[in-house]
Amino acid sequence: MEKAIVQEVYEISAEYEEKRDPKKLEEFGNMITSLDAGDSIVVAMSFSHMLNLANLAEEVQISRRRRKKVKKGHFADENNATTESNIEETLKKLVFGLKKSPREVFDALKNQTVDLVLTTHLLNQFVDLCIKSTQG
Fold it and tell me: Which intervals of the chain form a coiled coil (predicted)?
């Protein structure tokens, strides 16, 4: 039965992800909140494992990019570079090493975005809360 529940939760979440249908999000929320403690733990652990696998896949991809070390002097190449020890070294490398003007560096920095990366910490806290709620 647990496998069917996990599968259904995955399917509903995938449908919401694909269509962004608020009804699917509500259905997902209703399903999650209606689970008993045992099923909640199974679902949380399942999502936790999926996030771990996604993080592992991302690490492998980053590692492969680093091995290629294709450097053409473009700002995009910095995404594949290993992290410098500090901002000063990075700026020197861009201006003096890659011959980028200070204006080019400024423009590239002001257009940066940050993506949210989900980790399993919240899911582990959720599991802990579920366990505590079943123990009284």
Answer: none
